[in-house]
Design goal:
single chain; alpha/beta; Rossmann fold; 4-stranded antiparallel beta sheet; about 30% helix; binds zinc ion
């Protein structure tokens, strides 16, 4: 999900299945270049890569990395409708792998907050809410099929649409989580500020993003798996995520690199980048229905940052 900073509108998400769909479709139209950094407003910008017909650029002032081409909410919505989906991430059998991260996150949150009102932005089918036992769980999901599945469990506490339209009152929530959401936003400050408004004083925000500065990203450069414009439009590291949170009225508490568990077949599929050819896709097809494919591998390349911050 993302929000248009200029208009305060929150636009579409591709988070129908939480996690990332590392498939880049051809871009159907040209987009104007955004004149300034989305975080600090500086216009001193340097080019880093060109990927999928998009410029990945970096602000020389605050070091934020972002997609230079500006995508409107409508254009993104159209693009996402053409997207493929990850063939293995959403499988029922993958639930135990997803829960490894979710339960780790839950335990950390519960060490800081005893319970209360929780909002998961981009909640998909409610998989994270499912592990938050004892909390008053709310979700927002733009993708209608995923939202419907979450609504079966959580009723009207899950809103199908964007955060702006959900009608939540300010100072409602004790905790708001954005997992694999902020990377998709071209204007992340507006989204974080909206979350700040919705949090109670002293409320906690938890933000999970890909780390553009991890060793794996630095080695692989433009081939880093998370560089998937226009699916990912904002590319954070600890420094720029902290900056965004502080600019939005939060005090950063801590960062963690929490491990994820993946099936071997999921890793092959991800490495294939969704292309139905090449060595990794052949490996995926070889193990897709075998016990070998279901070998569970713990991944922690420091490529995912989870950050906790409190509303000032
Ligand atoms: Zn900047």
């Amino acid at each position: 999900m993302f929000m248009n900073q200029d208009q305060g509108q929150i636009g579409p998400t591709k988070c129908s299945i939480r996690g990332d769909v590392f498939v880049m479709q051809p871009v159907p139209q040209k987009h104007s270049l955004h004149p300034a950094c989305y975080l600090c407003g500086a216009t001193n910008i340097k080019k880093k890569f060109k990927v999928n017909d998009h410029h990945i650029v970096q602000c020389r002032t605050c070091s934020f990395v972002f997609v230079w081409e500006h995508w409107s909410p409508d254009a993104l919505a159209t693009y996402y409708k053409q997207q493929g989906t990850d063939q293995v991430y959403g499988e029922v059998e993958n639930r135990v792998n997803l829960n490894y991260y979710y339960e780790s996150l839950r335990d950390i949150i519960q060490a800081m907050k005893p319970g209360g009102q929780l909002l998961d932005v981009g909640c998909s089918e409610g998989q994270f809410l499912d592990v938050m036992h004892g909390w008053q769980c709310h979700g927002v999901e733009l993708e209608p099929v995923a939202a419907q599945k979450a609504q079966i469990k959580y009723g009207d506490r899950v809103f199908n649409g964007n955060l702006e339209d959900a009608g939540f009152s300010n100072e409602t929530f004790d905790v708001i989580t954005l997992q694999d959401v902020l990377d998709h936003m071209p204007a992340p400050l507006a989204s974080l500020r909206k979350c700040r408004d919705l949090l109670k004083p002293g409320g906690l925000i938890v933000v999970k993003v890909h780390n553009i500065s991890c060793l794996y990203a630095r080695i692989t450069g433009s081939k880093y798996y998370a560089i998937v414009p226009p699916v990912h439009l904002s590319y954070f590291n600890k420094k720029t995520l902290d900056f965004a949170l502080v600019e939005s009225g939060f005090s950063v508490l801590s960062h963690k690199y929490i491990s994820h568990i993946l099936f071997l077949k999921t890793i092959f599929f991800r490495l294939s980048e969704g292309k139905q050819r090449g060595l990794f896709y052949h490996c995926f097809k070889l193990v897709e229905h075998s016990r070998l494919g279901k070998i569970r591998i713990r991944k922690n390349l420091h490529d995912i940052i989870t950050t906790w911050a409190v509303k000032l």
